[in-house]
Design goal:
By secondary structure, this protein is α+β, with helices and mostly antiparallel strands. About 40% of the residues lie in helices and about 20% in strands. The strands form 3 sheets. A 7-stranded antiparallel sheet has the order 3-4-5-6-7-9-8. Strand 8 and strand 9 form a beta hairpin. Helix 8 runs antiparallel to helix 10. The longest helix is centred in the middle third of the chain and has 21 residues. The radius of gyration is 21 Å and the shape is globular.
Length: about 350
Protein backbone atom coordinates (compact mmCIF):
# COMPACT_ATOMS: atom_id res chain seq x y z
CA UNK A 1 0.00 0.00 0.00
CA UNK A 2 1.18 3.45 -0.85
CA UNK A 3 -0.15 6.95 -0.27
CA UNK A 4 -0.27 9.75 -2.78
CA UNK A 5 0.59 13.34 -1.92
CA UNK A 6 -2.96 13.99 -0.69
CA UNK A 7 -2.74 11.20 1.90
CA UNK A 8 -5.35 9.07 0.11
CA UNK A 9 -4.65 5.33 0.06
CA UNK A 10 -3.85 3.96 -3.38
CA UNK A 11 -2.91 0.43 -4.47
CA UNK A 12 0.61 -0.57 -5.34
CA UNK A 13 1.52 0.59 -8.83
CA UNK A 14 1.96 -2.94 -10.09
CA UNK A 15 0.39 -5.96 -8.46
CA UNK A 16 2.42 -9.15 -8.53
CA UNK A 17 0.98 -12.13 -10.37
CA UNK A 18 0.86 -15.53 -8.71
CA UNK A 19 0.74 -18.79 -10.64
CA UNK A 20 -1.95 -21.37 -10.05
CA UNK A 21 -0.19 -24.24 -8.31
CA UNK A 22 -0.89 -27.92 -8.91
CA UNK A 23 -3.16 -28.35 -5.88
CA UNK A 24 -5.26 -25.31 -6.76
CA UNK A 25 -5.46 -26.53 -10.36
CA UNK A 26 -6.82 -29.88 -9.09
CA UNK A 27 -9.39 -28.05 -6.96
CA UNK A 28 -10.53 -26.06 -10.00
CA UNK A 29 -10.85 -29.25 -12.03
CA UNK A 30 -12.90 -30.85 -9.26
CA UNK A 31 -15.36 -27.95 -9.37
CA UNK A 32 -15.49 -27.79 -13.19
CA UNK A 33 -13.47 -24.60 -13.54
CA UNK A 34 -10.31 -26.13 -15.04
CA UNK A 35 -11.38 -26.82 -18.63
CA UNK A 36 -9.15 -27.43 -21.68
CA UNK A 37 -9.33 -24.40 -23.98
CA UNK A 38 -8.62 -24.22 -27.73
CA UNK A 39 -6.38 -21.16 -27.29
CA UNK A 40 -4.30 -19.41 -24.66
CA UNK A 41 -3.96 -15.75 -23.72
CA UNK A 42 -0.65 -15.41 -25.55
CA UNK A 43 -2.31 -16.44 -28.84
CA UNK A 44 -4.31 -13.21 -28.80
CA UNK A 45 -1.13 -11.14 -28.60
CA UNK A 46 -0.39 -11.93 -32.26
CA UNK A 47 -2.34 -8.91 -33.53
CA UNK A 48 -0.60 -6.80 -36.16
CA UNK A 49 -2.62 -3.57 -35.90
CA UNK A 50 -4.61 -1.64 -33.32
CA UNK A 51 -6.64 1.57 -33.10
CA UNK A 52 -7.95 3.45 -30.08
CA UNK A 53 -11.53 2.59 -29.17
CA UNK A 54 -13.65 5.70 -28.62
CA UNK A 55 -16.99 5.94 -26.84
CA UNK A 56 -20.16 7.53 -28.23
CA UNK A 57 -18.85 10.97 -27.21
CA UNK A 58 -15.59 10.47 -29.08
CA UNK A 59 -13.59 10.02 -25.85
CA UNK A 60 -10.73 7.54 -25.49
CA UNK A 61 -11.88 4.46 -23.52
CA UNK A 62 -8.27 3.27 -22.90
CA UNK A 63 -9.15 0.14 -24.89
CA UNK A 64 -7.67 -0.64 -28.30
CA UNK A 65 -9.46 -2.60 -31.01
CA UNK A 66 -6.96 -5.08 -32.44
CA UNK A 67 -6.74 -6.77 -35.82
CA UNK A 68 -5.09 -9.98 -37.01
CA UNK A 69 -3.78 -11.36 -40.25
CA UNK A 70 -6.51 -13.28 -42.05
CA UNK A 71 -4.83 -16.64 -41.59
CA UNK A 72 -4.62 -16.11 -37.83
CA UNK A 73 -8.04 -14.48 -37.58
CA UNK A 74 -9.98 -17.48 -38.91
CA UNK A 75 -8.40 -19.88 -36.42
CA UNK A 76 -8.62 -17.47 -33.47
CA UNK A 77 -12.25 -16.49 -34.10
CA UNK A 78 -13.33 -20.13 -34.37
CA UNK A 79 -11.67 -20.82 -31.04
CA UNK A 80 -13.20 -17.74 -29.42
CA UNK A 81 -16.74 -18.61 -30.48
CA UNK A 82 -16.27 -22.13 -29.14
CA UNK A 83 -15.00 -20.74 -25.82
CA UNK A 84 -18.17 -18.65 -25.67
CA UNK A 85 -20.29 -21.81 -26.05
CA UNK A 86 -18.29 -23.41 -23.22
CA UNK A 87 -18.99 -20.37 -21.06
CA UNK A 88 -22.67 -20.00 -21.88
CA UNK A 89 -23.97 -23.30 -23.29
CA UNK A 90 -21.79 -26.07 -21.87
CA UNK A 91 -19.96 -26.38 -25.20
CA UNK A 92 -23.06 -27.03 -27.34
CA UNK A 93 -21.65 -26.85 -30.87
CA UNK A 94 -25.09 -26.58 -32.46
CA UNK A 95 -25.19 -22.86 -31.71
CA UNK A 96 -21.76 -22.17 -33.21
CA UNK A 97 -23.15 -21.56 -36.69
CA UNK A 98 -25.11 -18.56 -35.35
CA UNK A 99 -22.16 -16.91 -33.62
CA UNK A 100 -19.37 -14.71 -34.86
CA UNK A 101 -16.68 -12.50 -33.32
CA UNK A 102 -17.55 -8.88 -33.95
CA UNK A 103 -14.56 -7.24 -32.27
CA UNK A 104 -11.52 -7.93 -30.10
CA UNK A 105 -10.44 -5.14 -27.74
CA UNK A 106 -7.26 -5.00 -25.69
CA UNK A 107 -6.61 -2.96 -22.56
CA UNK A 108 -3.04 -2.16 -21.54
CA UNK A 109 -4.22 -0.04 -18.61
CA UNK A 110 -5.37 -2.81 -16.25
CA UNK A 111 -3.15 -5.16 -14.23
CA UNK A 112 -4.34 -8.23 -16.14
CA UNK A 113 -4.12 -6.57 -19.60
CA UNK A 114 -7.39 -8.22 -20.64
CA UNK A 115 -8.82 -8.91 -24.06
CA UNK A 116 -12.54 -8.23 -24.36
CA UNK A 117 -14.32 -10.32 -26.98
CA UNK A 118 -17.59 -9.15 -28.51
CA UNK A 119 -19.73 -12.03 -29.78
CA UNK A 120 -22.65 -11.42 -32.16
CA UNK A 121 -25.63 -13.73 -32.62
CA UNK A 122 -26.32 -13.48 -36.36
CA UNK A 123 -29.96 -14.52 -35.91
CA UNK A 124 -30.90 -11.28 -34.14
CA UNK A 125 -27.71 -9.16 -34.03
CA UNK A 126 -27.70 -9.39 -30.24
CA UNK A 127 -24.23 -9.16 -28.74
CA UNK A 128 -22.47 -10.30 -25.58
CA UNK A 129 -18.92 -10.05 -24.21
CA UNK A 130 -16.40 -12.15 -22.36
CA UNK A 131 -12.80 -11.57 -21.26
CA UNK A 132 -9.52 -13.41 -21.82
CA UNK A 133 -6.88 -12.67 -19.17
CA UNK A 134 -3.60 -13.94 -17.79
CA UNK A 135 -4.40 -16.44 -15.06
CA UNK A 136 -3.58 -15.03 -11.62
CA UNK A 137 -4.13 -17.24 -8.57
CA UNK A 138 -5.22 -14.41 -6.27
CA UNK A 139 -7.83 -13.27 -8.79
CA UNK A 140 -9.19 -16.82 -9.14
CA UNK A 141 -9.39 -17.15 -5.35
CA UNK A 142 -11.41 -13.93 -5.46
CA UNK A 143 -13.77 -15.35 -8.07
CA UNK A 144 -14.27 -18.50 -5.99
CA UNK A 145 -15.04 -16.49 -2.84
CA UNK A 146 -17.49 -14.39 -4.87
CA UNK A 147 -19.21 -17.57 -6.06
CA UNK A 148 -19.49 -19.13 -2.60
CA UNK A 149 -19.93 -16.24 -0.14
CA UNK A 150 -21.72 -13.51 -2.13
CA UNK A 151 -25.27 -13.48 -3.50
CA UNK A 152 -23.80 -13.51 -7.02
CA UNK A 153 -22.90 -16.39 -9.29
CA UNK A 154 -19.90 -15.88 -11.59
CA UNK A 155 -18.98 -17.95 -14.62
CA UNK A 156 -15.31 -18.36 -15.45
CA UNK A 157 -12.89 -20.99 -16.78
CA UNK A 158 -9.19 -21.59 -16.31
CA UNK A 159 -6.59 -23.46 -18.37
CA UNK A 160 -2.80 -23.27 -17.92
CA UNK A 161 -1.92 -19.55 -18.19
CA UNK A 162 -5.36 -18.37 -19.28
CA UNK A 163 -8.45 -17.15 -17.46
CA UNK A 164 -11.83 -16.70 -19.19
CA UNK A 165 -14.44 -14.54 -17.45
CA UNK A 166 -18.01 -13.74 -18.34
CA UNK A 167 -19.07 -10.12 -18.66
CA UNK A 168 -20.92 -8.97 -15.52
CA UNK A 169 -23.80 -6.77 -16.60
CA UNK A 170 -24.70 -3.60 -14.71
CA UNK A 171 -24.19 0.14 -14.59
CA UNK A 172 -20.53 0.98 -13.79
CA UNK A 173 -20.39 2.39 -10.27
CA UNK A 174 -18.90 5.72 -11.34
CA UNK A 175 -21.63 6.21 -13.97
CA UNK A 176 -24.29 5.16 -11.46
CA UNK A 177 -23.06 7.73 -8.91
CA UNK A 178 -23.01 10.42 -11.58
CA UNK A 179 -26.46 9.75 -13.04
CA UNK A 180 -28.62 7.65 -10.71
CA UNK A 181 -28.51 9.16 -7.23
CA UNK A 182 -31.27 11.73 -7.83
CA UNK A 183 -33.90 9.18 -6.89
CA UNK A 184 -36.80 9.23 -4.46
CA UNK A 185 -35.95 9.17 -0.76
CA UNK A 186 -37.07 5.55 -0.60
CA UNK A 187 -34.71 4.49 -3.40
CA UNK A 188 -31.86 6.53 -1.95
CA UNK A 189 -32.27 4.59 1.29
CA UNK A 190 -32.15 1.34 -0.67
CA UNK A 191 -28.96 2.45 -2.44
CA UNK A 192 -27.29 3.34 0.87
CA UNK A 193 -28.47 0.07 2.42
CA UNK A 194 -26.97 -1.95 -0.42
CA UNK A 195 -23.67 -0.10 -0.07
CA UNK A 196 -23.50 -1.08 3.62
CA UNK A 197 -24.05 -4.71 2.65
CA UNK A 198 -21.50 -4.51 -0.17
CA UNK A 199 -19.02 -2.97 2.26
CA UNK A 200 -19.49 -5.95 4.60
CA UNK A 201 -19.11 -8.53 1.85
CA UNK A 202 -15.80 -7.02 0.77
CA UNK A 203 -14.39 -6.69 4.28
CA UNK A 204 -15.29 -10.19 5.46
CA UNK A 205 -13.53 -11.92 2.56
CA UNK A 206 -10.82 -9.20 2.16
CA UNK A 207 -11.58 -8.06 -1.38
CA UNK A 208 -9.83 -4.73 -1.92
CA UNK A 209 -9.89 -1.70 -4.19
CA UNK A 210 -13.65 -1.38 -4.60
CA UNK A 211 -13.56 2.13 -5.93
CA UNK A 212 -16.62 3.08 -7.96
CA UNK A 213 -15.20 1.92 -11.30
CA UNK A 214 -14.42 -1.57 -9.97
CA UNK A 215 -18.03 -2.57 -9.33
CA UNK A 216 -21.33 -2.34 -11.16
CA UNK A 217 -24.86 -1.72 -9.92
CA UNK A 218 -27.60 -4.08 -11.06
CA UNK A 219 -31.05 -2.45 -10.93
CA UNK A 220 -34.15 -4.66 -10.75
CA UNK A 221 -37.70 -3.25 -10.98
CA UNK A 222 -39.74 -4.19 -7.94
CA UNK A 223 -43.27 -3.50 -6.72
CA UNK A 224 -43.63 0.30 -6.91
CA UNK A 225 -39.87 0.74 -6.65
CA UNK A 226 -36.38 -0.55 -7.54
CA UNK A 227 -33.95 -2.99 -5.98
CA UNK A 228 -30.17 -2.42 -6.17
CA UNK A 229 -27.30 -4.91 -6.10
CA UNK A 230 -23.64 -3.89 -6.12
CA UNK A 231 -21.36 -6.45 -7.75
CA UNK A 232 -17.59 -6.51 -7.84
CA UNK A 233 -16.15 -6.85 -11.34
CA UNK A 234 -12.44 -6.64 -10.50
CA UNK A 235 -10.88 -9.33 -8.31
CA UNK A 236 -7.21 -8.46 -8.83
CA UNK A 237 -6.95 -7.14 -5.27
CA UNK A 238 -8.21 -10.22 -3.44
CA UNK A 239 -6.16 -10.38 -0.23
CA UNK A 240 -3.14 -8.56 -1.62
CA UNK A 241 -2.65 -5.15 0.01
CA UNK A 242 -1.49 -4.61 3.57
CA UNK A 243 -3.74 -1.77 4.74
CA UNK A 244 -7.03 -2.84 6.29
CA UNK A 245 -8.96 0.19 5.06
CA UNK A 246 -8.21 -0.89 1.50
CA UNK A 247 -10.79 -3.67 1.99
CA UNK A 248 -13.54 -1.25 3.02
CA UNK A 249 -15.23 0.53 0.08
CA UNK A 250 -16.40 3.25 2.49
CA UNK A 251 -12.84 4.63 2.61
CA UNK A 252 -12.56 5.45 -1.09
CA UNK A 253 -13.43 9.04 -1.88
CA UNK A 254 -14.95 7.94 -5.19
CA UNK A 255 -17.79 6.36 -3.15
CA UNK A 256 -18.46 9.44 -1.00
CA UNK A 257 -21.70 10.47 -2.78
CA UNK A 258 -23.28 7.19 -1.65
CA UNK A 259 -21.81 7.65 1.84
CA UNK A 260 -23.54 11.03 1.96
CA UNK A 261 -26.89 9.33 1.22
CA UNK A 262 -26.29 7.15 4.28
CA UNK A 263 -25.53 10.20 6.42
CA UNK A 264 -28.72 11.80 5.22
CA UNK A 265 -31.09 8.88 5.59
CA UNK A 266 -29.76 6.32 8.11
CA UNK A 267 -28.97 6.30 11.81
CA UNK A 268 -25.98 4.31 13.20
CA UNK A 269 -28.30 1.64 14.62
CA UNK A 270 -29.83 1.18 11.16
CA UNK A 271 -26.38 0.71 9.64
CA UNK A 272 -25.58 -1.80 12.37
CA UNK A 273 -28.77 -3.73 11.55
CA UNK A 274 -27.87 -3.99 7.86
CA UNK A 275 -24.34 -5.12 8.72
CA UNK A 276 -25.70 -7.90 10.91
CA UNK A 277 -28.18 -8.92 8.19
CA UNK A 278 -25.42 -9.30 5.61
CA UNK A 279 -23.16 -11.21 8.00
CA UNK A 280 -25.99 -13.63 8.70
CA UNK A 281 -26.44 -14.16 4.96
CA UNK A 282 -22.72 -14.74 4.48
CA UNK A 283 -22.88 -17.32 7.28
CA UNK A 284 -25.79 -19.07 5.55
CA UNK A 285 -23.92 -19.14 2.25
CA UNK A 286 -20.84 -20.52 3.99
CA UNK A 287 -22.82 -23.37 5.53
CA UNK A 288 -24.51 -24.12 2.19
CA UNK A 289 -21.09 -24.50 0.51
CA UNK A 290 -19.12 -25.55 3.59
CA UNK A 291 -17.03 -28.31 2.01
CA UNK A 292 -16.11 -26.19 -1.00
CA UNK A 293 -15.22 -23.10 1.05
CA UNK A 294 -13.12 -25.13 3.48
CA UNK A 295 -11.28 -26.82 0.60
CA UNK A 296 -10.61 -23.39 -0.89
CA UNK A 297 -9.38 -21.89 2.39
CA UNK A 298 -7.02 -24.80 3.00
CA UNK A 299 -5.39 -24.09 -0.35
CA UNK A 300 -5.37 -20.35 0.26
CA UNK A 301 -3.67 -20.72 3.63
CA UNK A 302 -0.72 -22.58 2.08
CA UNK A 303 -0.45 -20.36 -1.00
CA UNK A 304 1.51 -17.13 -1.47
CA UNK A 305 -0.86 -14.31 -2.44
CA UNK A 306 1.06 -11.24 -1.28
CA UNK A 307 4.53 -10.19 -0.17
CA UNK A 308 5.29 -10.98 3.49
CA UNK A 309 5.45 -7.28 4.41
CA UNK A 310 1.83 -6.82 3.31
CA UNK A 311 0.69 -9.88 5.27
CA UNK A 312 2.48 -8.61 8.39
CA UNK A 313 0.93 -5.16 8.07
CA UNK A 314 -2.60 -6.46 7.53
CA UNK A 315 -2.50 -8.96 10.41
CA UNK A 316 -1.44 -6.18 12.82
CA UNK A 317 -4.21 -3.87 11.64
CA UNK A 318 -6.85 -6.62 11.81
CA UNK A 319 -5.65 -7.63 15.28
CA UNK A 320 -6.04 -4.04 16.44
CA UNK A 321 -9.42 -3.60 14.76
CA UNK A 322 -10.94 -6.84 16.08
CA UNK A 323 -9.11 -6.58 19.42
CA UNK A 324 -7.93 -10.13 18.80
CA UNK A 325 -4.25 -11.08 19.13
CA UNK A 326 -4.83 -14.40 17.34
CA UNK A 327 -4.29 -12.53 14.06
CA UNK A 328 -0.68 -11.86 15.05
CA UNK A 329 0.07 -15.61 14.92
CA UNK A 330 -1.02 -15.92 11.28
CA UNK A 331 1.38 -16.04 8.36
CA UNK A 332 -0.60 -15.94 5.11
CA UNK A 333 -3.43 -14.01 3.50
CA UNK A 334 -5.47 -17.21 3.38
CA UNK A 335 -5.18 -17.55 7.16
CA UNK A 336 -6.35 -13.95 7.59
CA UNK A 337 -9.41 -14.57 5.40
CA UNK A 338 -10.19 -17.76 7.33
CA UNK A 339 -9.89 -15.96 10.68
CA UNK A 340 -12.18 -13.18 9.50
CA UNK A 341 -14.79 -15.75 8.50
CA UNK A 342 -14.39 -17.64 11.79
CA UNK A 343 -15.08 -14.44 13.72
CA UNK A 344 -18.17 -13.84 11.60
CA UNK A 345 -19.50 -17.35 12.23
CA UNK A 346 -18.88 -17.00 15.97
CA UNK A 347 -20.75 -13.64 15.98
CA UNK A 348 -17.56 -11.92 17.12
CA UNK A 349 -16.88 -9.92 13.97
CA UNK A 350 -16.63 -6.20 14.72
CA UNK A 351 -18.31 -3.65 12.50
CA UNK A 352 -16.08 -1.34 10.50
CA UNK A 353 -15.31 1.92 12.26
CA UNK A 354 -17.37 4.31 10.16
CA UNK A 355 -16.29 7.28 12.23
CA UNK A 356 -12.84 7.08 10.63
CA UNK A 357 -14.07 7.08 7.05
CA UNK A 358 -13.91 10.19 4.83
CA UNK A 359 -17.62 10.48 5.38
CA UNK A 360 -19.55 8.55 7.99
CA UNK A 361 -23.12 7.32 8.34
Amino acid sequence: MQQNNTGINVPSKKKLFFKVNENFSSYLKNYNRNIPLPLQYDDLLRFNQSISLLNAKGEDTLWQTVYYQESDMIELFESLTYIYTLLKADGDKDILKHLTVSRVDYCTFGNSKPFRIRIINRLNDNYDHFYVKVADASRIYGLELEETLSPNSVMYMYDKNTLIEEHIAGIPGDDFILKNLEESKFNQIRIAKEFVKFNERCFVRLLGDMRSYNYVVDITPDIESLQYRMRAIDFDQQSYEGRMNFYLPQYFKENNPIIFLGIKHMKPETVRQYQLEERSLIGIRYKASKERVEDLLELMKKDTLAPKAKVDQLKKELAKHHKNKEFLKLNSMGELVEKNIQLLLSKDFLQSNLSDSPAQF
